């Protein structure tokens, strides 16, 4: 600026000389040959006028130059700016602005994502058989990859070599009840123990923990028994794990007529790994070039497990003797006694398979290194129309619709969207979990959410959502925006209490669960359902379009459109807004509730079993950690209210603090091999707050399985995990709450 002003001043002096010369006094020397001096100009009114005019002109030009220079240096200071400076201060269009109005974003998605397009995708991605690792599975993966490329997305694939159990290639699995004819079921449970056992049958209802407690209350000996349980309520893996705790020798699972309106001879397929991913590489990825030592997951059962048809299960039940069922168990059968012997033989084979995950990405225009992941499994035991075809079709159509919005309609997401097609989902979310294990360090602070599209249409008159508490507010807002036909989802299904009527706990067998409980990434899984019950054809070879049409009154494309728009709204909202729509206070309510229960139960144990816990044991530090989290969460809310949302760096810092919450609830003190789902609030294992509550119940009755020292250790680690999360949420190290 000084150089510019100097130039202006020099030019003005020259002009003044010319003007003065025209009036007879402009010569540099007077008639006497003496040098011309400025003071002489100041003695005339005209010269004073010229001088004042020149000074004013200099002042005005200086202001204009300064304004223009300042404007050039501040072209891209805000989140919504469309301009940034690159080399040599050349303006560059970033594409981040002008920010498209949210109503326009919703309208564009509604125009492009239609039931007619989804119905066409159904025919493109339907397959009679596409088991994981098969040529048909690979063919479907290549088709998804080709679509992503056609939409102009950056694409890549992820290859894994996994070990799975398949039914015997030669021979068979079999059961023999008493001395009756031998049964050879075709269905199977992957990852079962192999061998042959003989024991007495014991009916155990759904195989839940409460069911086994009811049997224990009847003083029934469960050692070495073969448990006969109904499918439903919980996963196959949880049923087998619960039976193993009772020292059972085997588990038979059948579909009861009260739960499954299917044929008597319909076979069931599934897995019994109490975890997710390849159980032979627990905690690390199944890449071909890795040299990990031979190790197996702690979630692999040691007992035998086999599915049987409804016809076989009913025939066994009708012949059982022994005590009557507990009163609250529906039915009219007996439990079985020591004379009801059965032989179970399982001969599954371990096989290595190569699987591919397929990805496409729409890159963001501001924070391209932050992304939401939306995915669906591609494989199935049989046709798998509800389990995989609908989800894959919706995934591809959302990719097409949003890509078109970016290319042709001016929508510019701030953050990136990753579309993922997983393989080996039927074996326990293997493809998704192996990806998480392979890139966990990269994903920790990059992926801020996962949206699961598996099984999103299984009925028509119910709607259920399972998700991270961080996303509950976003879920509620989306329910109030998306319509099913002419009625908002919120008005149709929430009734008086949406959390009671729509929200449900996330299940272990959901592909969203490892994202949430293993990787600490906020996740959502949802579905249309009928009467809030499970779809009867999951895990069978009868999961076809025809059967799904029967369950939905032939409304599959229309329901898939609504489900896809629900997922699409959540994805687009997460990449549209300056700040992530996640409510960190939701977790405080859960922490406060669990801490309240622990406090009361510790007092009960100290009163009823004072010899088990030291009198000095206090819950004060856990209460303090809970308070620290509350204060940190409220502090973040204040920072959001007081911050300038147009400040790029401020937006990023706040979003990073929000993203860290879920990850910091993963206990750093447990092994991913022993307890892969390390989340202390929604995970599973002895490190969780819910496990601490159960442990206190066992201590209260002096259960021999209770361990006071183990409880005290887990209690201390859980306390510090909560405090550590509060510290991270508080932000800078000098902002920490050091009361603990």
UniProtKB/TrEMBL annotation:
- Which keywords belong to this entry? Cell membrane, Disulfide bond, Endocytosis, Glycoprotein, Lipoprotein, Membrane, Palmitate, Phosphoprotein, Receptor, Signal-anchor, Transmembrane, Transmembrane helix
Note the topology in the membrane: Single-pass type II membrane protein
Question: Which residues does the annotated region (Disordered) include?
Answer: 1-32
What is the protein name given in its UniProt record?
Answer: Transferrin receptor protein 1
Keyword Phosphoprotein among UniProt keywords: yes
Membrane-crossing segments per the record: 48-68
**UniProt-annotated location(s):** Cell membrane; Melanosome
Q: What is the protein's known function? A: Cellular uptake of iron occurs via receptor-mediated endocytosis of ligand-occupied transferrin receptor into specialized endosomes. Endosomal acidification leads to iron release. The apotransferrin-receptor complex is then recycled to the cell surface with a return to neutral pH and the concomitant loss of affinity of apotransferrin for its receptor. Transferrin receptor is necessary for development of erythrocytes and the nervous system. Acts as a lipid sensor that regulates mitochondrial fusion by regulating activation of the JNK pathway.
Which residues lie in Basic and acidic residues bias regions? Answer: 1-14
Instruction: Quote the subunit structure annotation.
Output: Homodimer; disulfide-linked.
The record places domain PA at 200-264
Modification after translation, per record: Stearoylated.
Matching entries from Gene3D superfamilies are given as: 3.50.30.30, Transferrin receptor-like, dimerisation domain, Zn peptidases
Peptidase M28 domain residues: 357-556
- Major site of localization recorded for this protein: membrane
Query: What family is this protein classified in?
Result: Belongs to the peptidase M28 family. M28B subfamily.
- List residues of the Transferrin receptor-like dimerisation domain: 619-729
